[in-house]
Structures are given as structure tokens and as C-alpha cells.
Amino acid sequence: MPLRRRSILSATLGAAVTAAVLIAAHSFVSSPATTQAASPRSGADHLGRPDYGVCRGTDPDCYHDWGNFDPATDGYRVLVYSRTAGPRHAHLGPALPAGLNPPLAPANAAQSALVKLGAEHDFAVDWTEDVTQLSSPSRLFRYNAVIFMSTTRDALDDPAQTALRQYIRGGGGFVGIHNAFGTEYNWEWYEGLLGGTNYYDHGRNQPGTVVTGSRKDASTKGLPARWDFADEWYNLVPFPSDVRVLARVDEATLPDGAAGGSGHPGHGRDHPVSWCQYYDGGRSWVTTLGHAVEAWTDAPMAGDQQFTSHVLGGIESAMGRSPFCR
Question: pLDDT per residue over 221-250, tens digit each?
Fold first, then answer.
């Protein structure tokens, strides 16, 4: 065969083979039956829920124990972070000065309540609103859990974001309370840490009935099946996914319903308020509850003892002192 004709034939065959490979590859990636196998972190799972590119859910195999914590030697310690870069809840009181453990005023109700809780249950509590205190993983690894207490909007800078992620990946514990859901809206990893969700809106602060889920978890053990409480009853978007729901609100008990001013209709019969998950190597326990100042003080309020017990169990399980996410 002449050299020129042989070259043309080889080129034609090569193009055909290349096209066939591309078509086959395209068919493999596009096939609904194989999309997850081809690209398990493709941005959404087969149900269309966000996929955050990490191991997450209720399987303990998602926890990554690097041996960063030695309670037998160091005891248990948590960091309460309450920095706000937007609206500030009354239960936080005035903004705190820079540094670690600045003086707390009587109006710093939530921070003071968490310090008291630690003193009563034998774990140390530090507190801050200074983002530099979260600027490195080595700082955070002093703590068995980090508590975001009604933080708002962009409460972290780049170094703190990196440190928090490395801390969680190293087996750290996270507790998010109330407006922790209104924080770091544009950071997908943090949305995943919250259970794949964010704050959307809420109705007015009003009484309702909390329905306890399985009472095997440290945060629900000893709670009644139903208990009265008052809150803003956050509506969330997206709906939490791959989590163990620990408590819900019965929307039928809300005098004004759960609809907020932004158009969210509420969650109907399935309105979670607390849940847990393993996330990117660490533990995450979160609750939307905790709006009222009375929930954090000695002032009488329906359900305040149940709420305190719930939060205490969440903290102790997130920091590894009690079994997590049962």
C-alpha cells in the first residue's frame, strides 16, 4: 500500500477510535445509573441534595480520630464563639472586647449560661468574639468542641475558616446554637457542617411544643416525649439531609403558624429543630432553639430545664464525653 494512502487510513481509523472512546466515556458519565460511581462528589446526590465533597452522615466511620484529644490528661474544654457581623440577639448582650475570656456583663446571658453549665458539669469553658483566637488549628485543638453561639453572617476571616476546617478534619467537635444558622451563608463547607442547610426565615417568637425523637442520644435522654417551649422556630433551606433528627416542633401547636415574612411556608408535619451528624472527620450537633433571653437565665420559662438538658447533652456528646449521635 502506498505510504500516503496508509497514512490517510491510519488517521481515519484513529479518529474513529477516538470518537468511539469519547462517546463511551460520555455515555458512562451521563448515565443516571453510573453518575455517582463516576463522580461521587459531583455537586449533588441522586436525590438532588447538595453534596459537600466530604464523608458525612450518621455512620461513625465518617469520624476521623487523629488522637488530638487526651481528656485523661487535659480534661474537657470548649470554646464559645459569639462574634456577630450582622444583627445581634439580645441573649448575647453587648459585644465583647478582644482577647480570650474578656469580662462578661449580666446582659451577656448566653455566654454566662454556658460558662455556668461547664462549671456545674466539670468541663472548662473559654469564650471570645475575637476572630484571631480561631486563627490556627493549634489554637482550636485545645478544645474538645467549639460552640458557635448565635454568630451572624461573616463571622470568620480566611485564616479562621481554614483553621475550623482543619480542626473538624482532625476529629474536633462542633456545636451550633440558634443563629449559627445565619452565619457564613456563602461558604458551602459550613452549610454542610450545619447539616446541609441554612436559615431562611421565621415567624414571630411564640410558644410551641417540641417533640423529642429517639431518647437514646445524650441530648434527648431523660426528656419527655413532648415539652413546651417558646422560640422563633426557624425555617430552613435546603432541608437538612443525612442527619439524625433529635427533636422537632409540632407546627400545629404554634398559634401563628411557622410561616415567616419572606414567604417560606414552614415545614409542616416534619419541622426539625435539633440534629446531629458526623462531618468531614468530626462531630456536629446543632439546634435552632435558644432565641429567648429567658432560656439562658434564671427567669422562669416553660421548657427551660429541658432546653438546658438538651444543650448540655449536645455539648458533651460533641466533645466526645458521651456517646455521639445515637
Answer: 999 999 999 999 999 999 999 999 999 999
State how far the Cα of 78 lies from the Cα of 147, in Å rounded to an integer.
Answer: 7
- Dihedral angle computed from the Cα positions of residues 252, 257, 262 and 264, in that order, rounded to the nearest 10 degrees: 20
| pTM for the full predicted model | 0.86
Cell numbers at 83, concatenated = 462574634
| Cβ atoms of residues 267 and 296 within 8 Å | no
What whole-number distance in Å separates Cα of residue 60 and Cα of residue 76? 21
Q: Comparing C-alpha atoms, which of 152, 147, 120, 114 is closest to residue 296?
A: 114
Whole-number Å distance between alpha carbons of 132 and 134 = 5
Mean model confidence pLDDT for the chain: 87
- Give alpha helix (H) positions in the chain: 3-30, 35-38, 71-74, 109-120, 137-140, 158-169, 188-193, 304-318
Instruction: With both helix axes pointing from N to C terminus, report the angle between 304-318 and 109-120 in degrees, rounded to the nearest 10.
Output: 70
Q: Which cell goes with 140? A: 482550636
**Phi-psi group of 75: left, alpha or beta (phi > 0 → left; psi -120 to 50 → alpha; rest → beta):** left
